[in-house]
Design goal:
Strand order of the largest sheet: 1-2-3-4-5-6-7-8-9-10-11-12-14-15-16-17
Radius of gyration: 38 Å
Number of domains: 1
CATH superfamily: Porin
Strand content: 35-45%
Order of helices and strands: HHHEEEEEHEEHEEEEHEEEEEE
CATH class: Mainly Beta
Amino acid sequence: MMLLTRITTAVLLTLGLAAQAPAATNADLEARLTALAAQVQSLQAEVAQLKAQNGAASAATATGPTVAAAAALPATPAADTRLDWFGYGEISYSRPDAATDTTADVGRFVFGASFQFDERTKFVSELEVEHAIASADDSGEVEVEQAYVERQLGESTYAKFGLFLIPSGMLNESHEPTRYYGVFRNLVDTAIIPSTWRELGASVQGTTAGGFGWNVGLTTGPDISGWDPTSTEGMESPLGSIHQEGQLASAHDLSGFVALNYTGVPGLRIGASLFTGDIGQGQQGFDNRLSLWETHARWTPGAWDLSAEYAQGNISGTARSNQAFIGNPVLIPKEFYGWYAQAAYVATLPNDWTLAPFARYERVNTASSYAFLGTGITPDALRAEEVGTFGLNLNIAPGVVFKVDYQSFDRDSANDRFDLGLGYAF
């Protein structure tokens, strides 16, 4: 309205001046009309601009910011699909027959992350907290379980560099609680193969069209010079007491491994592995070599899940190393072994739940023989421990399992216990 008033006023003023003035020449009139036309054109442009602004404001009120306004707003970053999170954990309740030793524990709390740098290269990591609290006064630990870069070399060939799991046995690389039966991991894959066993190094693995998988690598190895003859830890797991886990690992002596698996028949997996290397790490008095081999098989016909595994370790040069330990309760064994057989039946319930009753028998000996040190000095071989485990796994959702079992120990019946557990993996 203000612009229309200005236009009307300008026209009337011009006409009034023309009426009051003396007769003008044609040239004067043309000049005045030209000036008036210019003013009108300028005012029309202002009107058009004002209409455009009013229209944009109305559209913004009705539908949101205009295209120009939206372009001026800061962009919202899209989710990075190259980053992936995963994890697993387990909670347990364990009641031995000696009920005074009953415990409840957050055994493991693990978060992992992987990042895809490009279509062939990714980084994988896992950070684990054991037993809920880690401090100088507590039993818990915080540890990097894996940290490696994987590079795809071919259609079915990969290389790893960093801290990764050793492909030994059936549980070490597949150790999430949703992947095994029973509240706790079996003794063969803890006392003989120290799951989760990881080393620093490099490996190459691949598969063939016929169903064969292979994996070879060069890594750090255990450090036998760290053996503590006063601790029972070496009796519980010889390699578990001396493997280095990537923590300022002595790397004077490296080790190598090879693993083979066949999965060419549906429901069948057969495999074996060997880990070997010098483990003295250049320390005086320790010239020892470790060889740990294992073989395993798993068959899942229909609802049945049948598996078995055998593992054996040998350490050479222990006679010389044990000379310094004579008189202590725990010397370095020359040989240790373990095996188990297991059967489970997986029944499907309503709501896609599954219930799997299982039974497992295992025989483990962490010191089946010692190198000869002299009559009356050489320790006697341990008596093998035989364990029967009976229980149920109840999966209530993909990645969530409730477990219950009872374990009976032949050599040390004081360890007989009833266990409850909750496991998850995502």
